[in-house]
Amino acid sequence: MFTAIVSTSLRNRLMVLVAALLLSLYGAFTLGHLSVDVFPDLNRPTITLMTESPGMAPEEVERLVSFPIETAMNGMPGVERVRSTSSAGLSVVTVEFGWGTEIYRNRQQVTERLSLLTGQLPPGVVPQMGPISSIMGEIMLVALTPADGASIDPMRLRDVGDWTLRPRLLSIAGVSQVIPMGGEMRQFRVAPDTGRMAILGVTLEQVRTALSGYGANVGGGIVERRGEELLVRGVGRTSRLDDLRKLPVAVIDGAVVALGDVAAVDHAARPRRGDAGLNGLCPETAGCRHADRDARRGTGLDRTVLRSAAGRGAARCGLPSG
């Protein structure tokens, strides 16, 4: 058999050369379209559902959140396995489909099943579907640290990560998810003063009712005037502390009692669940500056990343000074 192949090839040299050239051109064309990855994706088509339920214990998360979601996901066409992990305030449900199923069709089925959970989950608890990516897709960990001599608190660093860096990274083609970790998440904090409330006759329910309607825009319809339609709006969305302090809480003897009269209003950090650091050092501002200097003296990826982030790359991303 081998002798016949060699003899036939020698008698048809031109045909063999043409076939070899065509195979080489096809290989070069295919090489430019191959996906490059460190490891092949060995996971079946998987969809992750993450649900936050602040204040709930793991037992409550399992019974009130994870179990209803798992029950709704079971029985869908192509589902091979459904598993969940419940922790304090967080439920993660993983739905695995069979090989050969289309991930976009699977996500559509999951979305339809989630719509059936309306009214079954606790108020304010909404499952979020994860992006189309596997655990093999993690490509980079970036640490935000203040420059030498800069004074930036952890809350400011988290603001930069959430509202400046994350949207710009998500705009890069191929980036499916960016998860900020560490720092301090900014929130409004209202600390009622029970002494002032008792003197002015304001109840805690009045304060809570006033806060529940704060920061929302309300539509008032359309008013016609001389052939024109004027849009009526009630604009209440704001992020200024002064506006929150002036929020009317009650009317006592014809006088308006504002929120700042019965409570202390300021910015505070959301309670932490986990933290992040650089090179194993503490995440506080001083520690981050120390970690920054140590990484600059080091070699390899840390020094390259920090130098590029502190230079022109940071300026192009629109990061604040420091």
General description of the model:
The protein has 322 residues and is of the alpha+beta class. The chain folds into four domains: 2-29; 46-135, Multidrug efflux transporter AcrB pore domain (Alpha-Beta Plaits, 2-Layer Sandwich); 139-183 and 272-316; 187-269, Multidrug efflux transporter AcrB TolC docking domain, DN and DC subdomains, CATH 3.30.2090. 40% of the residues lie in helices and 20% in strands. The strands form four sheets. The protein has a four-stranded antiparallel sheet with strand order 2-3-1-4. The chain has a two-stranded antiparallel ribbon with strand order 5-10. A two-stranded antiparallel sheet has the order 6-7. β2 (79-87) and β3 form a beta hairpin. Mean pLDDT is 83; it is low at 285-316.
Low-confidence stretches: 285-316
Strand order of the largest sheet: 2-3-1-4
CATH topology of the largest domain: Alpha-Beta Plaits
Helix vs. strand class: alpha+beta
The CA-CA distance between the termini, in Å, is 74 Å
Strand count:
10
Question: In a few lines, what is going on in this structure?
Answer:
This protein is an alpha+beta fold.
